[in-house]
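User: Here's a structure from my thesis project, written as structure tokens. My advisor, Dr. K., wants to see whether a designed sequence matches the one we expressed. Can you design one independently, without my sequence as a hint?
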């Protein structure tokens, strides 16, 4: 099987002999569009039959291929709709009490993950109150210094485990074991105990062909009409981060969750290999979170008296990612322009009011560095995290905030953007060498390049003024503008990979010339207006 999978992946097509073996593949031959087709379902391996064994004679589980029906006139609700169709079909075939949800680009890396999760579900004292066990979303292609800050090591080491004492972590969409009845909308009842033996005794006598036909109805595009699916049952509809709002609603029904991070990663996937992929991914996440905060599912309102206040605030922290773009943009843009104009924004270096600023800056960064070191990251990895932190806040979060407001005003339609995880060989080679990939045109890169050039020009302007001063005047200027100059130089240091991609790199991952010209023009224009 491994060889067949690798061959199909290499040639990007399914051989004719394999297509003939499976009816599901043959049905795709009569489909004109992947967005307009009937339900395609086939029981590939029927675990009820004695001949369903592997090469060693060990029994195989039931394996079902499903492509739910899609019609242009019916909204298919993206990942949430697919999950709900799978929940219904699986309830007809096996009705297992526990459901594992893994994204298509992830795979199991620890055969004991199921055993670990079941230990929580089957615990005699607290097991009946657990709705889901969430594993971290780890990746197999992270570079040595985590160039795009995709590993979330500090978050998985400190943040999510800390939520276990307050009701449990949020549902992050993959690597999660769910209790079926909790996903189906049932409220937690402390008097209801699960009889695991009775649940595992169910047997179905229908043939595979009858099974397939009856299950197709459950995956039809009209099945959910006038039902509670997507509202009170299954994953919630209407939000790009359906996992987060679904987890919140489950916890508000009285259930708790557990975060489990074993020494050997339970599941591994693929992290974005280009900067644009990462920024687009975070734009979708932060946009969805902000939509939740501005909807009736706002944790502070929807979770009031249902979940602890600490858990409400924890959800709100993620929900307000997009709003963080504004203070970050202020510190990136305003101080450097005011420096050119000669306007001081911070206390003098000789003033005692400098101490609160210095304390906050040093303590915050030291705490962040300590977290990363404790979670196994490198010093350079922490620097990359700080860089991506700024890149996301000035681009992804900004676009997410603006798009959310436009949607609320009815000026924009909601869309679900899938993060591409496929890259060509050249891109992968640069990724392995930890060279940031800028080789595409995007408004996000326009902003990044312009902000980088703006701080570079301001730093040059400040240095030019300082060089021409005598010793006494130099001390006065540094006393008055020391913090602003330091901030601009820090931003220039963070943006060093941007300058390299703008002017020094010759590979296909460099910044396109059109973006370089626009960034220089916009930055010079902003500096000129500041000096007027």
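Assistant: Designed independently from the structure alone:
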């Amino acid at each position: 099987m491994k060889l067949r999978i690798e061959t199909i992946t290499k040639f990007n097509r399914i051989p004719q002999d394999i297509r003939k073996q499976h009816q599901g593949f043959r049905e795709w031959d009569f489909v004109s569009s992947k967005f307009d087709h009937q339900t395609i379902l086939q029981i590939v391996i029927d675990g009820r039959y004695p001949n369903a064994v592997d090469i060693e004679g060990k029994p195989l589980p039931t394996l079902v291929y499903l492509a739910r029906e899609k019609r242009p006139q019916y909204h298919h609700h993206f990942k949430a709709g697919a999950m709900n169709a799978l929940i219904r079909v699986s309830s007809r075939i096996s009705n297992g009490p526990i459901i594992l949800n893994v994204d298509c680009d992830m795979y199991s890396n620890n055969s004991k993950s199921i055993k670990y999760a079941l230990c929580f579900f089957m615990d005699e004292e607290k097991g009946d109150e657990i709705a889901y066990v969430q594993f971290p979303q780890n990746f197999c292609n992270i570079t040595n210094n985590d160039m795009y800050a995709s590993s979330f090591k500090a978050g998985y080491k400190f943040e999510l485990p800390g939520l276990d004492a307050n009701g449990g972590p949020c549902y992050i969409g993959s690597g999660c074991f769910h209790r079926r009845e909790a996903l189906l909308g049932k409220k937690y009842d402390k008097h209801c105990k699960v009889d695991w033996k009775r649940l595992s005794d169910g047997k179905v006598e229908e043939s595979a062909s009858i099974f397939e036909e009856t299950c197709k109805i459950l995956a039809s595009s009209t099945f959910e009409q006038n039902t509670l699916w997507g509202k009170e049952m299954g994953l919630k509809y209407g939000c790009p981060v359906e996992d987060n709002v679904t987890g919140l609603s489950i916890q508000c029904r009285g259930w708790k969750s557990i975060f489990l991070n074993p020494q050997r990663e339970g599941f591994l996937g693929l992290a974005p290999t280009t900067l644009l992929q990462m920024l687009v991914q975070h734009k979708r996440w932060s946009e969805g979170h902000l939509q939740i905060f501005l909807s009736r599912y706002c944790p502070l309102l929807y979770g009031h008296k249902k979940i602890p206040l600490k858990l409400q605030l924890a959800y709100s922290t993620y929900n307000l990612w997009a709003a963080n773009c504004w203070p970050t943009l202020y510190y990136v843009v305003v101080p450097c322009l005011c420096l050119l104009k000669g306007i001081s924004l911070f206390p003098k270096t000789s003033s005692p009011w400098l101490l609160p600023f210095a304390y906050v800056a040093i303590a915050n960064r030291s705490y962040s560095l300590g977290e990363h070191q404790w979670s196994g990251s490198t010093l350079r990895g922490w620097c990359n995290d700080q860089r991506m932190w700024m890149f996301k806040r000035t681009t992804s979060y900004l676009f997410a905030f603006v798009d959310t407001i436009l949607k609320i005003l009815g000026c924009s339609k909601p869309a679900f953007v899938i993060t591409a995880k496929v890259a060509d060989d050249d891109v992968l080679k640069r990724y392995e060498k930890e060279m940031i990939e800028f080789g595409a045109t995007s408004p996000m890169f326009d902003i990044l390049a312009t902000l980088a050039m703006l701080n570079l020009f301001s730093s040059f302007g400040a240095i030019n003024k300082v060089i021409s001063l005598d010793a006494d005047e130099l001390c006065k200027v540094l006393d008055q503008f020391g913090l602003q100059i330091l901030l601009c130089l820090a931003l220039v240091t963070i943006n060093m990979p941007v300058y390299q991609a703008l002017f020094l790199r010759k590979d296909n991952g460099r910044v396109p010339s059109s973006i370089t010209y626009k960034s220089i023009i916009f930055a010079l224009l902003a500096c000129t207006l500041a000096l007027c």
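When you compare it with your expressed construct, this may help: Strands lie at 40-45, 63-67, 98-101, 107-108, 130-134, 138-139, 176-179, 256-259, 267-269.
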